[in-house]
Structure formats: structure tokens, C-alpha cells
Write a structure and sequence with these properties.
60% helix, globular, single chain, 12 helices, mainly alpha
């Protein structure tokens, strides 16, 4: 079935004017998504402005660079030849923001459903621009469709094997933690558009499943030990930052404080595996000890001045 193009108001001069102006921002944004071949920009522009790609542009810009597949254009799947990020591009550029259409996009393409687009989207959380929205201020909405709020086995029916699910949770665990540490906690002015802030519950679930499945799918015993330690160390360092930010809230950005508090709430779960609970506790404890030492040193410094 052809996508509904009624939301592309191609006969409305003001609508087209606004969208042409917006296209300049989108073109810049594509530079941050390294997977997109800039030879295909005409196709992306046509879809963003008109809701379809003309066969002339398709064959000139895509098919001639795609010699290993049939040169047939399918208007029902306009981004079918963009492989690993077809779903992401359609969610990003479609003018039809209805829930029905966005749900349809998620299952529209023949790529392994969502998985490659999700991987690209997760990577952007780690390398998100310092200012502005990368995805037309649709970051949270796209995140909702590419990364379920929970990360349990039943939330990913398209991951046909448990091993593929393991790679998914590993990717979520790594990218979300690095996104928080580098782009929320590690900068004075975190970008509020970064969708990593909407993945905190998924991070907790990914922590659990990564821990459960690591020995099964990382066959080497030494590697298992390293990976297990990596989970603990990553969480310990993360919650060291969490405790420090909450304890010194006035010195930190409001968004960083908000995310730190939410992480505390999300991980306040006695049912978490013991090693994860221990890592969180150690991170919080280390931060408190460091803060206590600083306060003690400051008091001693003041006392010496009065002597």
C-alpha cells in the first residue's frame, strides 16, 4: 500500500517555502550521520518536500551506485535501497506524523526490522551535536519507535535469536552509558534534544540482560571475566558521577541533575542482580567518600587560617 501523501502540502506555497528553508538544516544534519552517502541527497530532498522520489532521480542517484540489486523502484518503500537506515530516514523525514504511519514505517522495510536503524540512532547519542536538534526536533518521537522504553526479550520480537538480542542489549548498554557520561554529565551545557535521556529504563533492563547472557555468548573465559568487570566498572563510574552531581546540584546543569535523579530512581530496585546493585552502591559510596574528604580538607584549611 502506498504511503498517504496528503500531509505533504505541495500546493501550499507557504508550506513549501518553510520546508525548503528547513531542508538546509537537514542537509547539515546529514553530515553527523556518517552512514548517509551524500550522492543520495536529491532523493532525500524529494521525499522530504514531496513525499515521493521520482524514478529519474532514483535511477540517477541510487540505482547506478547499486549494481548488485535490481534497478526497480518501489514507491511503497521509498528508502528500500538505503539498507541499514531506511526505517530511520523514513521516521525522520516523513511529513505524516500520525501514530499509524509511524508504526507502519517500523515494519515497512525488508531490512532486519529496526535493528540497523536502531544501531545508527544509538551511535548518534554518543556523538550528538552540542546545539540544536539533529532530527527536526523529532528526536524523542523517533526514539520511541526505534528504542522501546523497556529492554526485555518480549520487547524485541524481531530479534529472532537470543544471541541477536544479546548484541542489541550490549549496544544499548554501551551507547546509552557513554551518551550520558559524555553528553549529559560531561559537558557544562548538555543538549536537551539528545534522546539518550529517554533511554534510562532501557539501560537498566540492558544491564540485567547483558549480565545474564554474557557468559553464554562471549565464549572465551578470560573475555567473560573482562566483560563482567566492564559492566561493573561502567556502572560504578556512572553512579560516581550521579552521586557527585546530586550532592553538588548547584554546580551542575539542571538537565544533568534531572537525569542523575532519574537514574537513582530507575536503579533503586532490590531485584537487580547482586553484582549490579554492588556496582551502583560502590559508585555512590566512592563519590560520598571523595566529597567528605574535600569537606574535611576545606575545614582544615579554614582552621589553619585562624591559627
Amino acid at each position: 500500500m502506498l504511503p498517504d501523501r496528503s500531509q505533504w502540502k505541495v500546493d501550499d506555497k507557504e508550506w513549501m517555502k518553510q520546508h525548503r528553508a528547513k531542508w538546509k538544516e537537514i542537509r547539515e544534519a546529514f553530515k553527523h550521520v556518517k552512514n548517509i552517502n551524500l550522492k543520495y541527497l536529491r532523493c532525500l530532498k524529494e521525499y522530504y518536500l514531496k513525499g515521493e522520489i521520482s524514478e529519474t532521480v532514483y535511477y540517477e542517484d541510487i540505482a547506478q551506485h547499486d549494481l548488485n540489486v535490481e534497478r526497480k523502484y518501489n514507491p511503497e518503500k521509498p528508502f528500500d535501497r538505503f539498507w541499514s537506515y531506511a526505517t530511520l530516514l523514513d521516521l525522520w523525514l516523513t511529513a505524516d506524523r500520525s501514530k499509524k504511519n509511524l508504526k507502519d514505517i517500523v515494519t515497512r522495510y525488508d531490512e532486519p526490522p529496526i535493528y540497523p536503524s536502531q544501531a545508527v540512532f544509538l551511535e548518534k547519542m554518543r556523538y550528538y551535536p552540542e546545539k540544536g536538534s539533529l532530527f527536526l526536533e523529532r528526536d524523542e518521537e523517533i526514539c520511541h519507535y526505534l528504542i522501546p522504553k523497556r529492554c526485555r526479550r518480549r520487547d524485541y520480537p524481531d530479534r529472532k535469536t537470543e544471541e541477536l538480542f544479546y548484541y542489541t542489549v550490549s549496544s544499548i548498554f554501551t551507547n546509552v552509558i557513554l551518551g550520558i557520561k559524555n553528553n549529559i554529565f560531561g559537558t557544562k551545557n548538555p543538549n536537551p534534544h539528545n534522546p539518550v535521556r529517554f533511554c534510562l529504563t532501557a539501560l537498566k533492563d540492558a544491564s540485567i540482560w547483558k549480565w545474564k547472557l554474557i557468559e553464554k555468548y562471549d565464549k572465551d573465559t578470560i573475555y567473560n571475566t573482562y566483560r563482567s568487570q566492564e559492566i561493573e566498572i561502567s556502572l560504578e563510574k556512572l553512579f560516581f558521577q550521579v552521586s557527585n552531581i546530586i550532592s553538588n546540584a548547584r554546580e551542575h546543569n539542571e538537565l544533568a541533575v534531572e537525569v542523575a535523579k532519574e537514574l537513582m530512581d530507575v536503579y533503586d530496585d532490590p531485584k537487580l542482580p547482586e553484582p549490579i546493585l554492588k556496582a551502583v552502591k560502590q559508585g555512590l559510596g566512592s563519590a560520598k567518600r571523595k566529597i567528605s574528604k574535600k569537606k574535611t580538607a576545606a575545614k582544615k584549611k579554614v582552621s589553619k587560617k585562624h591559627l
